[in-house]
């Protein structure tokens, strides 16, 4: 056992409590003597395992207090494996308990060895399930920092994982703020070059005459003011990854020089004669339509084939249904953590506004909007007004009606599953055939938490 599992023992008989404590050497025992205590301790420890005597005070002869405790404990710690201990031959209540979400039952009188076996097995199952949950959560966000549940965007993430280890040049296409830089960094991190430098340069942000020396470096005396030899970004990235952002904005003169570098893998510093071999992985990004630029003579076709050995297109937020709200919630979590404040909730109208807005600036724009809303909103809720989004008029009425219908159906399914499982998240998720994180996201969306 890696760390000791918490075992909550709910048993009003002090002697039995003591006896059980000795059987479960190796577990972190948390004793409780009645329902209220059991629930409070379940909340505090979220124990992996619970042994629950169904006959609890004030009426130990009757299982009702124990069954109520079971439900409340599971509401606090939905993943817990609860084993109920029933009176001799009380099969009816044992089955009731299992129907309410108990993992198993055991009849008194207690035989320590058998009970220990049962608890050990439950512990194993718990850790298997925990591992599964961890893996499921990972696959929801396959690349660190890149959030999405959209099949198209997730496909791009999988491609990034696949191509990262190869040295091929990658072109990332996508509107501004769609996470091109995050994915470029992921390519680097998942490659054999991760220990070396990741060097980023934005071709649109630097004037043409400076860009050349930024990229290639220069020798002393190469031009007025060049008073010492300076290494360019390409050389600086040697052994690592060079990220050329906004490659579509690279002037034609430099396109020719870059092409030569990509073909020969050597550079010459400005004013220098020596050609220097450089081993770098190149990742490029652009929000422009390079094919159209090629037709208009603004981008070299031969360079395009060099930089686009692998081309990945990140879909914009408005084409990823559900992602806007998912990302908004994740940002609220992040800002709450950063500012050590309780997490704000979005009102249903705010969620509607987020879904209806086209997000031309994608996640970057959303970061700004949410950050501002957190500052502007008073109280725990963020209302649609706090977001101050200008939702375009008209247009999507049919789409909206369909969306309303879908939302309503979704809402009803979630509410019914939650009430049927009496608020037990794991059970409700099971009924709906979705994972717990997805259910939590839906509950947030409908403000059901
Ligand atoms: N899928 C995502 N999940 C979480 N954060 C994201 C996602 N996409 C983008 N971001 C965030 O949005 C901001 C912009 O992302 P990034 O700089 O990678 O976009 P970009 O496509 O390179 O934008 P630009 O073309 O404007 O430079 C960053 O703060 C990034 O963390």
Ordered list of secondary-structure elements with their pairings:
Blueprint: E1 6-10, H1 14-23, E2 28-32, H2 35-45, E3 49-53, H3 64-76, E4 81-86, H4 91-99, E5 104-107, H5 112-140, H6 151-163, E6 170-173, H7 180-189, E7 198-202, H8 208-216, E8 217-218, E9 230-231, H9 233-236, E10 241-245, H10 252-264, E11 266-267, E12 276-277, E13 281-286, H11 290-295, H12 301-307, E14 310-313, H13 323-339, E15 345-346, H14 348-356, H15 362-376, E16 381-382, H16 384-387, H17 397-420, H18 425-432, H19 436-445
Parallel strand pairs: 1-2, 1-3, 3-4, 4-5, 6-13, 6-14, 7-10, 10-13, 15-16
Antiparallel strand pairs: 8-9, 11-12
Helix pairs in contact: 2-3, 10-12, 13-15, 17-18, 18-19
Task: Give a description of the structure.
The chain has 449 residues and is of the alpha/beta class. It folds into three domains: 6-139, Rossmann fold; 151-315, Rossmann fold, CATH 3.40.50.300; 319-445, Orthogonal Bundle (Helicase, Ruva Protein, domain 3), CATH 1.10.8.60. The protein is built from 19 helices and 16 strands. It has helices spanning 14-23, 35-45, 64-76, 91-99, 112-140, 151-163, 180-189, 208-216, 233-236, 252-264, 290-295, 301-307, 323-339, 348-356, 362-376, 384-387, 397-420, 425-432, 436-445, and strands at 6-10, 28-32, 49-53, 81-86, 104-107, 170-173, 198-202, 217-218, 230-231, 241-245, 266-267, 276-277, 281-286, 310-313, 345-346, 381-382. The strands form five sheets. The protein has a five-stranded parallel beta sheet with strand order 2-1-3-4-5, sandwiched between helices. Strands 7-10-13-6-14 form a five-stranded parallel beta sheet. The chain has a two-stranded antiparallel ribbon with strand order 8-9. Helix 2 (35-45) packs parallel to helix 3 (64-76), helix 13 packs across helix 15 and helix 17 packs across helix 18. The structure holds adenosine-5'-triphosphate.
């Amino acid at each position: 056992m890696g760390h000791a599992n918490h075992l909550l023992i709910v048993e009003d008989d002090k002697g039995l409590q003591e006896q059980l404590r000795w059987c479960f050497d190796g577990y972190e025992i948390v004793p409780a003597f009645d329902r209220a205590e059991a629930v409070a301790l379940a909340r505090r420890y979220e124990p992996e395992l619970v042994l629950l005597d169904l006959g609890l005070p004030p009426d130990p002869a009757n299982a009702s207090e124990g069954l109520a405790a079971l439900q409340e404990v599971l509401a606090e710690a939905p993943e817990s494996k609860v084993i109920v201990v029933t009176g001799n031959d009380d099969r009816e209540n044992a089955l009731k308990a299992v129907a309410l979400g108990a993992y198993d039952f055991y009849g008194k009188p207690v035989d320590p060895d058998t009970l220990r076996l049962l608890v050990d097995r439950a512990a194993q199952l718990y850790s298997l399930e925990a591992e599964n949950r961890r893996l499921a959560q990972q696959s929801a966000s396959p690349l660190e920092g890149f959030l999405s549940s959209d099949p198209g965007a997730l496909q791009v993430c999988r491609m990034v994982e696949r191509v990262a280890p190869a040295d091929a040049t990658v072109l990332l296409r996508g509107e501004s703020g769609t996470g091109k830089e995050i994915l470029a960094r992921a390519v680097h991190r998942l490659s054999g070059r991760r220990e070396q430098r990741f060097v980023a340069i934005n071709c649109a942000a630097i004037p043409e005459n400076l860009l050349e020396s930024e990229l290639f470096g220069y020798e002393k005396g190469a031009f007025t003011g060049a008073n010492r030899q300076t290494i360019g970004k390409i050389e600086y990235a040697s052994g690592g990854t060079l990220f050329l952002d906004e490659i579509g904005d690279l002037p034609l003169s430099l396109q020719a020089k870059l092409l030569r570098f990509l073909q020969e893998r050597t550079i010459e510093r400005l004013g220098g004669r020596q050609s220097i071999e450089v081993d770098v992985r190149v990742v490029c990004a652009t929000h422009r339509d390079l094919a159209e630029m090629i037709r208009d003579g603004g981008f070299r076709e031969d360079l395009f084939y060099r930089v686009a050995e692998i081309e990945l297109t990140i879909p914009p937020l408005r084409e990823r249904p559900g992602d806007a709200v998912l990302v908004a919630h994740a940002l609220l979590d992040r800002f709450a953590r950063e500012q050590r404040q309780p997490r704000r909730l979005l009102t249903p109208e705010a969620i509607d506004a987020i879904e209806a807005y086209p997000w031309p600036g994608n996640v970057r724009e959303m970061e700004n909007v949410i950050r501002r809303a957190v500052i502007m909103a008073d109280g725990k809720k963020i209302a649609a007004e706090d977001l101050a989004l200008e939702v375009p008029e008209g247009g999507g009425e049919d789409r909206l009606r369909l969306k309303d219908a879908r939302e309503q159906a979704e809402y009803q399914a979630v509410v019914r599953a939650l009430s049927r499982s009496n608020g037990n998240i794991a059970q409700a998720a099971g009924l709906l055939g979705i994972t717990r994180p997805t259910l939590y996201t839906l509950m947030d969306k409908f403000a059901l938490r």
